[in-house]
Specification:
Elements: H1 2-36, H2 41-44, H3 47-51
């Protein structure tokens, strides 16, 4: 019975490692975009356009 759990733990380890790598890549990507000034977040939410509805 313990041999089954051993394989399941290995899968969870790969899942956690993959999620951490994806989070790190996302943070690097957002930081790089912010440094280049290539973020369109302000263009998506325009307070003036919300007032003219």
């Amino acid at each position: 019975m313990k041999t089954r759990n051993r394989g399941n733990n290995r899968f969870n380890g790969w899942l956690v490692a993959g999620a951490l790598i994806l989070i790190a890549l996302l943070l690097i990507w957002l930081t790089w975009a912010d440094l280049l000034g290539d973020t369109d977040v302000a263009a998506m939410i325009n307070p003036i356009s919300l007032l003219t509805l």
